[in-house]
Amino acid sequence: MIKIDHLVKNYGANCAVDDISFEIAPGEIVGFLGPNGAGKSTTMNILTGYLSSTSGRVMVDGLNVLDAPLEVKRRIGYLPEQPPLYPDMTVEEYLIFVYNLKGCTLNRTKHLQEICEVVKLTDVKGRLIRNLSKGYKQRVGIAQALVGNPPVIIFDEPTVGLDPKQIIEIRNLIRNLGKDHTVILSTHILQEVQAVCDRIIIINKGRVVADELTENINRVAANSFRYQVKICGPQKEVLSMLKNRPDVVYAEVMAARDGDAYIYQVESNRGVDIRKSLFYAVAERGWAMVGLEPLGMSLEDIFISVVDKTSADAAERGAKGGKKPRGKSLEKDIAQSILDATAEKQESIAPYAGDED
Ligand code: ADP
Ligand code: MG
Asked: Taking the model in full, what pTM does it have?
């Protein structure tokens, strides 16, 4: 449905989008994830035809954005970072205005009614936009994107500035839209893409640094090789036993205790289930294991690691120090493998030469 080919956008000497390529299939919900200034809005503005690119090609539904800007705009509903609302209009007046602007041919009353129902605006249709809360204004922004029933919907940071309840409502709404639309949304919030998107494209410094299905990322993150173990026994000896095991890559004792048991965090070699053998090793020495539970990996850390590994400000972030005690950092390994896989994928996308299609 969408094909972006070696897209570049320079603002003077500043390269906002630096050779981005990806494809999005019909019906996918894709999240652009990346820190502020990564190039998300710029990419979306080019995709929607609101901004020209320096080089590269953007195709929507087989149409080149440059050759057929109007045709492309007709296929895309866009909610920019700052929705173009007119505060002195009522919701209804504004939607009629957008309907006319888009040259929409669907039955007006029915179409706008349906949209208002989908985004839950029916009750405030007659109110001036200026008097609506931020959450409702955002819904009006979403409503205008839906006018004309475009197959592709693009939302730039749709939940910024909303309260937690509104955020959940908007996320549900987007997920529902995803059932019969191709959706791209941008966000700097990891949980947002995780909650809503089938696929995550991480953009940093104008480049695609990761492109992976959400379920794949969730699956690796759920694979636990890190455990919290509670053992009654002499702390020093227990720790040294843990550290000396060939299948353990990292072990440390935590500050908290549980009765007379010390609590340890243990990280095993990847793919090794240490639970049974650890149980016997502890029992053999006459100690008691009174607790053993897997600790999942932090998706947040994987994300930060992906961004750090592709940023110059990694050192700065490192200096601030991690909040949680961590082992050899599986998250970093996973971040690296996501980066490697993506780099491979990106390399296999050949630059297009002329208009072959
Ligand atoms: P994001 O949406 O990911 O936060 P943007 O696409 O807005 O990032 O910005 C990417 C980079 O391009 C930033 O460094 C930003 O400062 C720069 N930039 C964006 N718009 C302009 C502009 N109109 N003129 C100059 N630089 C810009
Ligand atoms: Mg932005």
From this structure: 0.79
